[in-house]
Amino acid sequence: MRNVAIVGTGHSKFGVRNDVSMQELAWEAVKQALEEANLEQKDIQYFVVGNVGMWSAEELPAVVVGEYCDLTPKGTMRVEAACATGSAAIRDAYQAIKAGEIDVALVVGVEQMSQSPNPQVIELIGRAGNYFWEFENFGLTFPGYYALYASAYMAKYGMKEEDLGSVAVKNHYYGARNPYAQFQKEITMEEYLKSKPVAQPLKLLDSSPITDGAAALILASEEVARKITDSPVWIVSQGVASGTANLSRRTDFTGIEASYVAAKEAYKRAKIDFSDAWRYFDVADVHDCFTIAEIMAYEDLGFAKRGEGHLMARNGETYIGGKIPVNVDGGLKAKGHPIGATGVSMAVSITRQLLYRAHKGTQADIRNGMGITHNVGGTGHYAYITIYSTRRPSS
Amino acid sequence: MRNVAIVGTGHSKFGVRNDVSMQELAWEAVKQALEEANLEQKDIQYFVVGNVGMWSAEELPAVVVGEYCDLTPKGTMRVEAACATGSAAIRDAYQAIKAGEIDVALVVGVEQMSQSPNPQVIELIGRAGNYFWEFENFGLTFPGYYALYASAYMAKYGMKEEDLGSVAVKNHYYGARNPYAQFQKEITMEEYLKSKPVAQPLKLLDSSPITDGAAALILASEEVARKITDSPVWIVSQGVASGTANLSRRTDFTGIEASYVAAKEAYKRAKIDFSDAWRYFDVADVHDCFTIAEIMAYEDLGFAKRGEGHLMARNGETYIGGKIPVNVDGGLKAKGHPIGATGVSMAVSITRQLLYRAHKGTQADIRNGMGITHNVGGTGHYAYITIYSTRRPSS
């Protein structure tokens, strides 16, 4: 099959973006990606829009974004995989090129969550899972779901509040150095420990924010990529899995099964040994919608043994210079989490890391030329793992 | 690239289905497809769910459907292309197999429109297009959009009400013979002419209904398809295009530009000559959300010359035995239009036609072994064309 490369990246400022419409926000990222790839809209053969959009009244976000970005009449669709929507969009374009249907595709993830004609954002996010069963019957909401995981992990492995806090402190440390981040400020452990409870044991500073933002990628087949850039970043493999819609049916609350299944698939395709996976990657972006999610990701991805993820955080092993730098763009926690854009934003961060184009103070050491993104939808209802490399995969 | 075949089809009863939940409705189609392919859930490597679902409170339809159908933890996503959502779902699975990511995929399109916690279905459909501009500012709704096309076509080509009516009469004639159809009754031209106006010149009997329904396909790579069935139906090619989000920016209202662009792409890939495209196909399903849409489709697909589509309807050339049988499953008009399922339903109908498995009284004569589906999202905001054949494409 054909190799697929990332040849352009774009990223908007994340935060409360009431200054723009959804399509204007998307254009900020699309424009940057086109300029980076030195391409024009006519060069794009297909575009896919990642947007959850329950809170946007634009029910045809792909065509509205497409027209504003002057991509009409190119083929398009909107994809959704909850908070993993951005990665699902990448998958659609990646497969279209790998399948030989097209040679150049644009991926844009966009979400406008703070500005909405029907502003029930929190309730809508709360519905993630099986709405009619768990939300309506038991009132389980999104922070509540992750609080169950945090409580179970604490009970089983003796994790302390400070272990969760160390993730928040790290991600704010790097967010403070990312000009695109929603929260460009560091926090202290004291501030963390004093922050308001959201769903015990999770506090406000364990939680990712409500964010408006967009991110874009331009993907190309190997033949075309060679003409566009001399620094392609290849998509080596993807792994994708789903989890039970009902958390009441999950057997374990100390890891996300779908993440583990998707990671194993992606690693198998990339010939990566799970037991020391961390050795392969120079940098990783993982889905820290809550701090506990990042700690579980360390284990689900094979960066730490079961029950030792919280120590990895406590010991600072995921800072730059540590065992494996994780979320050194600030992560969902500090960079922000515009759910349709997050997966694309992760890919932008990893691509720029591998090319030594990261923001000052956030550049990891690139030795093996490989990176990974881990993007979760809902509470492990969806999981997408993508592996990137500066070295051409053998196709 | 690898060839991709349809190896199983499933279809639920369309209509007002308050007797089932969305996931139960999906299972009706999935179960039938699995049985037809003689496969079990464990054999499915990936599934994609086509669902627009603005009126469903299930915000993660793919995982809810996946769990109910026992497909967890297989990878999945939800795709949306307005009323072309079903075809977008087929495209996702088709590309995944063609790209070599997987060998067997399940496609399910499902929509439950009549039963809803927030039953503003009509308003939600009305929003199709650019909500903030045309819907909020001008109050343009979906029937109004197509009424503009019907008026323009009448003015330019002298189409009569009876020409529109002849499409409704034909589709109800075949719908009466399709046990899955929402309206299993014939109508007369007199009934048509007396039916209530919806948006002049369109009447109630020009309009497709609000429908609950599901349809499913199982796709497989050539190697695997050979083991599953001795009667594969191959996907020969797809064409996909988009149109301006704002109808106020369209230059012509007598055809759907996106349909024409997508058809040309699909024909080019399949080496089909546009000027006599109808000769290649034994049967077609086109997107008759309103009768005018079917007449424009005749022309956008090259079945009739510009301005002659309404004559094709009037002269009965699209009945079985005519020039090319179109919507002999009843079409959206009589079979119903559950928007996330419609594109998959079209593929099920064409597959069964090509295999001589159509319902009694609806089987077309199959000579060339080729069929086509035309699925439009919004008012030509999306267009998906898919070509099917019983003869293996040269890959």
Descriptive report:
Chains A, B: One of its GO terms (biological process) is isoprenoid biosynthetic process. Chains A, B: Residues 239-389 form the Thiolase C-terminal domain. Two copies of one chain form a homodimer. The first copy, chain A, has helices spanning 22-37, 61-68, 85-98, 121-126, 131-138, 142-157, 161-175, 189-194, 222-228, 257-270, 291-300, 309-314, 331-335, 342-354, and strands spanning 4-11, 46-50, 75-80, 104-112, 197-199, 202-203, 212-221, 233-242, 283-285, 370-377, 382-389. Chain A is α/β, with parallel strands linked by helices and 395 residues long. Chain A has a domain at 4-117 and 210-228: Peroxisomal Thiolase, Chain A, domain 1. Chain A has a nine-stranded mixed beta sheet with strand order 3-2-4-7-1-8-11-10-9, with helices on both faces. A two-stranded antiparallel ribbon of chain A has the order 5-6. In chain A, strand 5 (197-199) and strand 6 form a beta hairpin. The mean pLDDT of chain A is 94. Chains A and B meet through helix 2, strand 3, helix 3, strand 8 and helix 10 of A and helix 2, strand 3, helix 3, strand 8 and helix 10 of B.
